[in-house]
Structure formats: C-alpha cells, structure tokens
Amino acid sequence: MKKALLLHSSREGQTIKILRYIEKELADTHQCELVDLHETPDIDVTQYDKVMIGASIRYGHLNKKLYKFIDKHLSELDKAKTAFFCVNLTARKPEKDTPETSVYMKKFLTLSPWQPKLLDVFAGALYYPRYKFFDRVMIQFIMKMTGGETDPTKETEYTNWARVKLLSERFGSL
Fold it and tell me: In whole angstroms, what is the distance from residue 21 CA to residue 107 CA?
C-alpha cells in the first residue's frame, strides 16, 4: 500500500476537514498520515510516496510557517509526487475558484520555490458563531465588501466537495 503524507496549515479547521475527506477517499489504496504543518516541521518527507499540502488563507495570506517548511524540505518535495491546494472564501465565486484564476494561488506560485505537480483551490467556510469578536467583525466587513454572508449567527460552508473528490482521484493516480 502506498504511503501519503497529508500536511495542513489550517486556521479554522476547514482545510483539515478537506484533507480528512481526501484521506477517506484514498483509504483503499493509500496509508495516509494527516499532520499539522505547524507542529511537525521535522517530518521525514522521504518516507512517503506522495505529499499533499493544504493551506488556508487568512486576511489575504498563507501562514509563514508553510513557506519555512517548503524552504526546509524543498529538495524532498521536488523529488516527490506532490499536490497543493489553498482554501479561501474568495473561491466561493466561480470566477475565482481555479488555480488559474485564484489570486492567492498565483501569489503562492510566485513566492514559493516549490512548484507542485497538482494544484487546486477550494472555497472555505464561514463559522461566525465560533469567531472571536475582532475576527467576526473583520470577516463581516470583508464579506460585506465582496457581497458575501454577513449574518453573525450563521455557519456557511462553501466547499465544493465534488471538486475535492476529483483532486483525491488525481492525487491517487500520481
């Protein structure tokens, strides 16, 4: 059975939820290990046949620890079968939900020396009741400016699970 490393850089948990879905999709053919990129930066990437990294966007940026991990493990990542996806609320709009149309993916590919074999972009989720006051107000402001949900009592998931399934299949076939 092939071994797959599923790394996440997640803030609110939607990226982890997406990777758990992928893990279940791969269960028949891959032994998967789901790892928090922020807690295990010294993991031996060479012990895996494939590596997928999922990372969330927060206030327009990926976490700096993602770039540090990439810099530290670049040679191993370049030799491996790899995939990367980012999760953001902008991707809830059909014209901004692909690697070619996502400003965040374009920025990542410009800043990162690592160029994964597979790329994707997924819309995240709004969990207003779970946010601290400052985050809730800031996200409401951003959503109001971009025509999104602003009701602080709602939780709304925008993730396109059919697209996640397609990435799982493509990754499984690498």
Answer: 26
Angle (CA) 121-15-103 rounded to 5° is 30
Two structure tokens written together for 39: 């807690």
Run of H or E residues at 54: strand 50-56
Distances (CA, A) of 87 to 31, 42, 173: 24, 24, 22
Per-residue pLDDT, 103: 95
DSSP code at position 157? E
Phi, psi of 96 (to 5 degrees): -130, 25
What residues contact residue 155 under an 8 Å CB cut-off, 6+ apart?
125, 126, 127, 128, 129, 130
pLDDT in tens, 85-123: 999 999 999 999 999 999 999 999 999 999 999 999 999
Distance CA(63)–CA(41), nearest Å, equals: 13
12 bridge partner residues: none
What b/e sequence results for 29-38 when a residue is b if at least 16 CB atoms lie within 10 Å of its CB, and e otherwise?
ebebebbebe
In 3-state terms, what secondary structure has residue 29?
coil
pTM to 2 decimal places: 0.92
How far CA 46 is from CA of 35, 82, 101, 104, in Å, comes to 15, 12, 32, 28
